[in-house]
């Protein structure tokens, strides 16, 4: 079989084979276009109260193509001419007044309307502004040249989940596809309707977690306290909380979204990361966790799925997410969820068994497992290693060492990994010592990290967020929603692969020949013997 490890990969179902049916021209079904939206003209009356004067125009207009334009130009999809609307209106209509676009490759994305006119396009009485965009939602009223000149009512025929969230949320955000789901809730992609910006919204139910454990979201004082902690965090490598909605049944947390996806996916795509790239990303992770610790926060669930990347490029900002979720869902429930799959958990967490305390050092261990996976692309501890149980592997610090995978890795990287995966807490390396470790002393990397983080601070203006209360009018709805608004200046980054707190981590399948044992190499024999002691 050889000394071979299968790469980091998600559990996927085997794709079905191509059908053996010979689809002839006779039995091929005719193409049926997707009608993704519909425009209903507003009323026509003889009193002249409304803008339309032609009683013979069609009852509605189906939106099939990805773009729809309206204006006086003959090139428009819908051409406004004299005799259709009042003369005093049409003279103020632009050749291209507005355009509606929808990405049909992603049907759960919203329709976007862009104002192309000087005299204005209005949605529900509010002016968009020339060159600006806005999300179109079901039953939105479109007016041109003046808020009272309502010409269409938009009907969204691609049903989304607007009705499944409180109106205070659906009035501001367009709910799109699900990004992730786990024990701590579900995460969905949302669009700010006015700004057309993408965000992630984490929905945490107050009743129960998916594993059947009760949570502690029914105490409004605890909720406010934890939100105050989240809003006070101010670091470019920590995910930003934009807004929080507290209802009778759930808490909705609006977060920034990032384009680069998860660190897990980056490792999966490449098999493993180079030492240089690992050093660049890892330095940011350490700085982020050090900041959390300085604020009195221990993450306790660090893993590649909870490390997000701002862009697809190598020079990208790292952001830590899902910190503090244990405070939202309850300590006991959170620990029971995490300990179900303790691939990244420190031995003292397993020994504590939800009863005894442990410190910030647990995050150093988890970072060590992440460093291990980044460098070689497989997990140091796994249920698939049959020599010992997963619990025994972690408690003794006996990680799987494959010489063929580690042969190209520098000695300093190996030594740093071993010092992080040290069982005895008092002997484990600290975050400051990691930053000063010989492997981390790469001048070029240090400068690149400082530069990219400085630019992030300048561009996004990471001022402290402030907590404001919504007016009574905003909160008056059937769901009894309290809007906890987090106000911050500057724009946020975007991403399409936000992941929730998952009860089952994405798996790393490993196949080793008999030559690879549960051991370290010669450079770590002394360290490993100490790590194996309870």
List keywords for this structure.
single chain; 534 residues; alpha+beta; Tumour Suppressor Smad4; Phosphorylase Kinase, domain 1; Transferase(Phosphotransferase), domain 1; 3 domains; 7-stranded antiparallel beta sheet; 6-stranded antiparallel beta sheet; 21 strands; 26% helix; disordered N terminus; disordered C terminus; ATP binding; nucleotide-binding
Describe the structure.
This is Ovarian-specific serine/threonine-protein kinase Lok. InterPro entries: FHA_dom, Kinase-like_dom_sf, Prot_kinase_dom, Ser/Thr_kinase_AS, SMAD_FHA_dom_sf. By secondary structure, the chain is of the alpha+beta class. The chain has 3 domains: 120 residues, Tumour Suppressor Smad4; 130 residues, Phosphorylase Kinase, domain 1, CATH 3.30.200.20; 187 residues, Transferase(Phosphotransferase) domain 1 (Transferase(Phosphotransferase), domain 1). Helix content is 26%, strand content 19%. The protein contains 16 helices and 21 strands.
């Amino acid at each position: 079989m050889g000394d071979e490890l299968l790469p980091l990969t998600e559990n996927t179902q085997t794709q079905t084979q191509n059908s053996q049916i010979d689809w002839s021209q006779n039995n091929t079904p005719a193409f049926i276009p997707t009608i993704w939206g519909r425009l209903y003209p507003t009323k026509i009356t003889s009193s002249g109260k409304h803008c339309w004067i032609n009683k013979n125009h069609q009852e509605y207009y189906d939106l099939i193509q990805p773009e729809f334009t309206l204006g006086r130009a003959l090139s428009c999809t819908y051409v406004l001419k004299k005799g259709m609307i009042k003369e005093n209106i049409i003279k103020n209509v632009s050749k291209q007044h507005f355009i509606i676009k929808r990405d049909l490759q992603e049907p759960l994305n919203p329709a976007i309307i862009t104002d192309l006119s000087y005299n204005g396009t209005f949605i529900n009485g509010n002016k968009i502004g020339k060159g600006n965009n806005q999300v179109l939602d079901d039953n939105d009223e479109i007016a041109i040249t003046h808020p009272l000149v309502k010409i269409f009512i938009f009907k969204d025929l691609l049903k989304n989940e607007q009705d499944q969230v409180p109106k205070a949320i659906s009035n501001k955000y367009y709910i799109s596809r699900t990004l992730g789901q786990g024990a701590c809730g579900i995460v969905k992609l949302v669009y700010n309707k006015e700004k057309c910006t993408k965000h992630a919204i984490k929905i945490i139910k107050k009743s129960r977690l998916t594993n059947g454990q009760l949570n502690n979201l029914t105490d409004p004082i605890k909720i406010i306290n934890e939100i105050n902690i989240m809003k006070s965090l101010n670091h470019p490598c920590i995910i930003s909380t934009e807004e929080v909605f507290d209802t009778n049944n759930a808490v909705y947390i609006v977060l920034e979204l990032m384009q680069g996806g998860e660190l897990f996916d980056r490792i999966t795509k490449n098999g493993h990361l180079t030492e240089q790239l690992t050093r660049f990303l890892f330095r940011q992770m350490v700085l982020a966790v050090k900041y959390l610790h300085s604020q009195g926060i221990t993450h306790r669930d660090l893993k590649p799925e909870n490390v997000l990347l701002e862009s697809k490029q190598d020079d990208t900002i790292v952001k830590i997410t899902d910190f503090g979720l244990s405070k939202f869902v309850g300590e006991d429930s959170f620990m029971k969820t995490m300990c179900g799959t303790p691939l990244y958990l420190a031995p003292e967490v397993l020994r504590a068994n939800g009863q005894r305390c442990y410190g910030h050092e647990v995050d150093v261990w988890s970072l060590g497992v992440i460093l291990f996976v980044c460098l070689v692309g497989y997990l140091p501890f796994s249920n698939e290693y049959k020599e010992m149980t997963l619990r025994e592997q972690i408690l003794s610090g006996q990680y799987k060492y494959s010489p063929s995978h580690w042969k190209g890795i520098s000695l300093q990287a190996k030594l740093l990994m071993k010092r992080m995966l040290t069982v005895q807490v008092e002997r484990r390396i600290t975050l400051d010592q990691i930053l000063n470790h010989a492997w981390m002393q790469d001048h070029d990397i240090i400068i690149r990290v400082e530069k990219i983080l400085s630019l992030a601070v300048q561009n996004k203006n990471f001022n402290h967020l402030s907590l404001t209360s919504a007016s009574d009018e905003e909160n008056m709805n059937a769901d009894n929603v309290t809007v906890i608004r987090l106000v911050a200046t500057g724009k946020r980054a975007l991403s399409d692969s936000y992941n929730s707190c998952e009860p089952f981590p994405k798996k790393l399948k490993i196949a080793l020949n008999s030559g690879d044992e549960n051991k370290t190499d010669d450079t770590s024999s002394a360290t490993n013997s100490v790590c194996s002691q309870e």
